[in-house]
Amino acid sequence: MLFPTDSLPTGPPVETKQALILLDLQNDFVSLDGKMPVANVLPFLPNLIPLVAEFREKGEVIWVGTEYKHPRSDLSPMTGSHSILLKHFLEEKNGGYERSQCLDDPRNARSPSEDPLAPSEELDVTHDREAFLAPVLTMTRYRCCISGSVGIEYPDVIKAAMNSQRDLVMLKSYYSAFVDTSLLMHLRTRLITELYICGSLSNISVYATVLDAVCHGLQVTIIEDCLGYNDESCHVEAVRRMADDMGAKGIDSQELRDDLAGLLGDVIREEDFTTKFEVSLPPPTRRSKSHTSKERVHDWMSRLDGEDSRAASFANDRNQAKSGGEIGTVGSEASKINSDSSAKSTETTSHERSPSRKRSTSDLEPLEEDRSAKLSHKPSSRRSSDNNNPAEQSKRKQNRSTARQRRPPSEVSTRSATSGTIKAETDLATTVQSQGKAAKKNKKLSPNILGPSDKIGQGDCHVCLELLDETEGERAFYSCKKSIKWQKMFHKSGEVPRLVAVQGDISDDNSQVPIYRHPADESPGLLAFDPIVDMLRKAAEKAVGHPLNHALIQMYRNSEDNISEHSDKTLDIVCGSKIVNLSLGAQRTMILRMKKSATTAEADVNETRPSQRIHLPHNSLFILGQETNQHWLHSIRADKRPASEKDPTELAFGGERISFTFRYIGTFINTAEKTIWGQGATSKQKSAARRLLDGVEAEKQGEEMIRAFSHENHRSSDWNWDEWYGKGFDVVNFETKTADAEVSAGVSTLGPES
Q1: What is the domain count for the chain?
Q2: I need a surface site. Which of 136, 185, 436, 710 has the fewest CB within 10 A?
Q3: CA 428, CA 385: separation in Å to the nearest integer?
Q4: Of 241, 261, 281, which residue sits at a domain end?
Q5: At 62, which CATH number?
Q6: For residues 90 and 531, which has the higher predicted lDDT (pLDDT)?
Q7: In angstroms, rounded to a whole number, what is the distance separating the alpha carbons of residues 659 and 533?
Q8: To the nearest whole number, what is the mean pLDDT of the chain?
Q9: 650, 672, 694: which is the final residue of a domain?
Q10: CB–CB of 428/30 below 8 Å?
Q11: Is 293 in a helix, a strand, or coil?
């Protein structure tokens, strides 16, 4: 039997969940008297303990420890590659590794052993105590996490943070938490798809667990300031590989706590609202300027409830408040912000009933003092009629104040036993308690939305509003949406949440094509500038005062399309030039966050890195200087707020945004002769152009280039362009994907570049 289209109701939305996995925080790794103490675990425990309690209200907490049963190989059963990262792997790669080196002395995790029972140095193997499950470890008394020992237990401060009724506590006998355990089944049955991972050894258990997690298709975020390590070089390389090779994201514990305090994960349901309405209007035509003009909206509201004047006053006040917080025009454009711009953005706004979705902190600024109140109250009643009751509001304020006053300090108990671990447990508890008090005194640096007179980044960034006139801007958006050949793109074996196209200034015979290289598995074929994009490029050139010959064009199809935190790769960008981002369509917010390496050494380790927020409304230009690009990361986060909480400028153009990132590229290829020259190539002159590498040589040089990209993404004041990029690279690191067919504006795109 056939059913008519749309005759069956749609199924309920499936809401996935999150889990926090804490690895190997047992006595052997945490305690000072452990078999392999990790020195930097103690400093981050004051950050981790409150995070666990707050995460438990939003997701699931999973404690994974190790129990030694049998020696285990360091090869992953799933991938066949090394599942841990040891010092000698790096030395061997750099040519400094001496075979048969022994590194298993219990007094030092990396000193040669003097034990007469140590393995013979004639063995063709390297022994490293960090590989604590290795088959060739010297003696069993140096094994970590032996069953029944004190080392396999958790310190009292960790035990106090556990909740036996709500948390999952499990043991593994391999480096990875996924091998021979029920962890994967546990996650699948509870619809957990997002993991936040931290632990005592970033290059061992954390590395192995992240590797298996991404192989199982789970989304992984590592908590960067809650990762323990013994060797910094191993830690840095492990984090780089987890981010660049495995696709894991990074976050600070404070940033994660802020997201949790911003109610990320709470669902706003339609039944929580007392009234529902839906407006369906036809799409705009070329002849009609707008189908939702200010007058028609007011007329409709007047017919609905006779409150036209009050609604108009509210909308006007809201738009003026918003305009006051947005970035103004630099220089000659500064005087163009007025009430007309608010009316223009309102004209293209459509109101639609949004499905139940999670809230996001992408445009919220949660404050430290509101965290406990937000975590202890459900948001479902926020829209109820009680909000208009002064008595109810006063009562809620009093409850929040009481909750803050009753917030207990971290409680740390010490072990009462006669064994030799009493001193270690007491030292651990004292350290955690004192550092916990110090952490509470830290003031959170709230992200701020900058105004026209504020310093953005390092001071070499600017925002220009109303680059084009109203008609040109609107026409450019709809023309580009229809005419540009949008493509899906993939990076790190996954489809990225945007559509992409690439255009540039190409010679008639394709003998000189600008190329911009960045981390990506594939990239659209570069096409010549079409007339509309060329018009936008020339307008952007006037703003920066130098040529722009390359454009990465991206379609954000809705507010959940996003781009992860990154800095632009400057291998091929002419030194000293500006990176220009032009926005058409719905307003989105760019977030700048200072790189961890850019913070001063004197800064408190628990202090949040400085961050800034910049609104990117329709018809605006954001100019990014290379100094800011060196010291700051930028991103556009997914915004999962319901439509009722968004500004009209964020709902304009159906929530769609087209981003044009114009760059001045100094590296070129000849597509016919397959040669390369310029700033980012080994040959700087066209007359001495060299052929693009292929085969093994290309693969080797490509790895070096990707490694250089990673260093630029993480380094700040110690970044040296000449050291990493100066010699040039004659290789293209991505496949070129041609657009055989147009992709409708409803699918995804590209790697971590805006």
Answers
A1: 2
A2: 185
A3: 50
A4: 261
A5: 3.40.50.850
A6: 531
A7: 11
A8: 74
A9: 672
A10: yes
A11: coil
